[in-house]
Amino acid sequence: MSPEEIAVRAGQQMPYLHVPVRAEVFANRETRLRELAAGHAMRDFLLFGAELAHVQHEVLQDYPQAALPSEDDLAAAGRAARPPLPAALWPRDPAWRVATRRMLELLVPRLAGSPAQAVVQGLLDGDDSHLEGQAELLLNGAAGLDMSAAPLVAAGLQVYWTQLVLEVERLHGKARQAPFGRTLDTTLCPCCGSLPVASVTKVDAQGGNYRYLHCSLCSTQWHMVRVKCSHCESTKGIHYQSLEALATDGATQDPGMASVQAETCDECGHYLKMVRQERDLHVEPVADDLASLTLDILVSEAGFQPHGINLLLLTGEGNPSAETSFTETARSS
Fold first, then answer.
1. Dihedral over alpha carbons 288, 289, 291, 297 (to 10 degrees)
2. pLDDT tens, 137-178?
3. According to the model, what pLDDT value does residue 7 have?
């Protein structure tokens, strides 16, 4: 079928949005990261991500009360077809700092003996203005972000925005006017306006197989038809790149059957990872994106730019040594 035919069929058979599940979103991420870490060149970093997901899960189960958009705010966002919880503009409730500090306190003993423990303790010892300043830099992509602490700040923001989405959905999800819906820019999250981290093909009970973009901040998933660029929305010049893997007998497996692929677009020169549930039921967008950094490097060397972002692995001029170390680790894998 053409992308248009898929869109018609998809609209009739499946929901446009999947909001995260409180008991699963970070727990599943932790499990997948631990699974992928075994024998991986980035083992230590993936295990650090697993510990981070563990405390994210724990904090999300008993999150402090935070301010939510009013019914009027939700209605206005719906009329304007814009996200009701825009990451760069939403006034963050102080509860996010309380919850993030609790997350850091839980994380410190789990990192005993690790160099990362000092970074966690340093952020925990900092004042509220420093934490807020780092959050502002991260959400707006501004220079000056402390790259070593960025994954920790991002983790706190992920839990906060996930909590916001869950509470808005709980309070308003059964209303005649749904709190979250289609927005003008379908390449960004319809809940918080953030970039996706990757897309995921989901298998439903009827055997349908649909592609969703997975938000890098609040973990909401929204539908986008296949064979369509997630950046410019073109249906031309779409290709799928993947890494060759060795089978247990030493033979090369068909890269076309890989569970992680990069969808590239010749029209705009961007790409986004795709993790395929029909090939591996346990794929998790954030975890599998982190574990396939080699694919990012190779696709970038071919001239493509990423459309998505993984907030747990940011690189930039603020810490070129970190970028180099991760790059060299990936090259050696």
1. 150
2. 999 988 889 999 999 999 999 999 999 999 999 999 887 778
3. 58
How far apart CA 198 and CA 306 sit, in angstroms, is 10
What residue type is 324 in one-letter code? T
Q: Which DSSP helix (H) or strand (E) runs through 241?
A: strand 238-241
Report the DSSP pairing between strands 305-306 and 209-215: unpaired
**Measuring CA to CA, how many Å separate 189 from each of 77, 221, 264, 295?**
13, 8, 20, 24
Q: Which residues of the chain have pLDDT under 70?
A: 1-13, 205-208, 244-256, 316-333
Number of residues that this document lists for the chain = 333
d(C-alpha 286, C-alpha 154), whole Å: 13
Listed residue (188, 12, 169) closest to 86, CA to CA: 188
Assess whether the region 21-172 and the region 196-332 belong to the same CATH fold. Answer: yes
**Three-state DSSP state, 129:** helix
Residue 272 in contact with residue 263, Cβ under 8 Å?
yes
| Torsion sign, CA atoms 130, 136, 138, 144 | negative
- Report the CATH fold assignment for 196-332: FdhE-like fold (3.90.1670)
Question: What confidence score (pLDDT) does residue 330 get?
Answer: 33
Sign of the CA dihedral with 80 first, then 81, 86, and 92 last = positive
Q: 276: Cβ–Cβ under 8 A, 6 or more apart, which residues?
A: 200, 201, 258, 259, 260, 261, 283
Rg of the chain taking only CA atoms, in angstroms = 20
Q: Where are the domains of the chain?
A: 21-172, 196-332
> 37: which 2 tokens?
């870490």
Which neighbouring-strand residues pair with 17?
Answer: 222
| 3-state SS assignment for residue 212 | strand
Tokens of 296: 């990012």
CATH superfamily of 21-172: FdhE-like domain (3.90.1670.10)
Average pLDDT, the chain: 88
Which residues, listed in sequence order, are joined to residue 252 by a DSSP beta bridge?
Answer: 246
